[in-house]
Amino acid sequence: MTDGATADTRTGDEGRADEVPSALDVLHSTPARRYLSPEPIPDEVLWEILDAAVRGPSGGNRQEWGWVVVTDPQVKRRIAPWYRDNWERAYGHRREEFLAGTAEGLSPAGFRGAEHLAHHLEEAPVWVFPVLRGAAAATDPRTGASIYGAVQNLCLAARVHGIGTSLTTLYAGHEDELRALLGLPEDALTMALVPMGYPERGRWATPKRAPVEDVVHWGTWGVHARR
């Protein structure tokens, strides 16, 4: 394994559950995990993960955010169909193309994982919505962008505990209904949905990426030589 064989044994991964991965191990091996078990996440573990999330970036250290944790099955059942409708419009109607590898955007394996999540979203035991105050009427596309660093803290901390996550916005288009359902302030905007759970399938692998030398530019765009 590329992650130092550190994963929780409940995931079926190699390694010992009592080994704590290094920071670089975690950074290199936190892919989206979309096959999630309904097994509950202990409250003390969830609080530790959330406490790590709020140590992440906040523009001007204003911390104009909130983190809404959803575990109520009825709330999930209200939101999940919105997600599936958007999934179908964006990807699902091209299922055969994606599975044949003739469509860009998702590999066949990536499509199967994303499709599974769409159809089993409410089975993830915990959902977290990062919420930003003052963003509901914003027109600047960078408004509150620093919150995504804090969201990544959430995902990395979950990884340390053997808990899988993925970051998605496919529920979008129902913000007013979601605001009412979650009791959000009028000026608040949800910035993502992060379903969390112990992985049922897969492993903590290094995501496939282009070589770093191909995407790093020294000084000006197009200069790839290492210093």
TrEMBL record:
Membrane-crossing residue ranges in chain numbering: none
Organism: Prauserella salsuginis
Coiled coil: none
Stretches with biased composition (Basic and acidic residues): 10-19
Keyword Acyltransferase set for record: no
Region (Disordered): 1-21
Protein name: Nitroreductase family protein
Xref: InterPro entries: Nitroreductase, Nitroreductase-like, Nitroreductase/BluB
Keyword field contains Hydrolase: no
Keywords attached to this entry: Flavoprotein, FMN, Oxidoreductase
Annotated ranges, domain Nitroreductase: 34-198
SUPFAM superfamilies attached to this UniProt entry: FMN-dependent nitroreductase-like
